[in-house]
Design a protein that fits this description.
Elements: E1 8-11, E2 19-22, H1 30-44, E3 51-55, H2 58-70, E4 74-79, E5 87-94, E6 97-104, E7 113-121, H3 125-136, E8 140-149, H4 155-158, E9 164-169
Parallel strand pairs: 3-4, 3-7, 7-8, 8-9
Antiparallel strand pairs: 1-2, 4-6, 5-6
Helix pairs in contact: 1-2
């Protein structure tokens, strides 16, 4: 499938100087969305993952059907204060600020192999934070998957040594 047909460029979002690549238009095309999930599943199905991590919000929208397709549990990684049980948290930098991500401690076992999913790999901060959460809970990172990678932001460098699959690299 041609992912580029479903991307809209938004200048100065979320702040001036940032060029935002909006992949949410794919949700308007159920056939293309289904094909995208099928392609992702084919690409990462052999990594041996036992669970999928994804950060809110767009990550949830892609990773949940991917988890169903692969028959894997989905573990939501949320912003601080959004999860009701005991959490582990990690703060990290973004290309336009900073944030904190949390996961329920009891959702991850040391025997787990985590597939980390995010819609876009930019600086790698969000993905690295999810890897850190998994590893601090004793799990292994089986690999990372992205729909789009913005190579000029060098996010892959922040994830050195990890298996990375990007469907589209700019």
């Amino acid at each position: 499938m041609n992912i580029e047909n479903h991307i809209k460029v938004v200048n100065d979002f979320p702040k001036k100087g940032v060029i935002f690549k909006d992949i949410s238009p794919i949700f308007l095309d159920p056939k293309a969305f289904g094909e995208l999930i099928d392609e992702l599943a084919s690409a990462v199905g052999g990594l041996g993952a036992t669970k999928i991590f994804a950060a809110e919000a767009r990550g949830f929208m892609f990773a949940t059907p991917l988890a169903i397709k692969l028959g894997l549990p989905f573990v939501p990684v949320r912003k601080k204060g959004k999860l009701p049980r005991e959490t582990l948290e990690v703060s990290y930098g973004l290309e336009y600020g900073s944030d904190t991500l949390c996961v329920h401690k009891d959702d991850v076992l040391p025997s787990d192999k985590i597939l980390v999913f995010d819609d876009i790999l930019a600086t790698g901060g969000t993905a690295k934070a999810m890897c850190t959460l998994a590893e601090r809970l004793g799990a292994q990172v089986a690999g990372l998957a992205f729909i789009m990678e913005l190579s000029f932001l060098k996010g892959r460098e922040a994830l050195a040594g990890k298996k990375i699959h990007s469907m589209m690299i700019e």
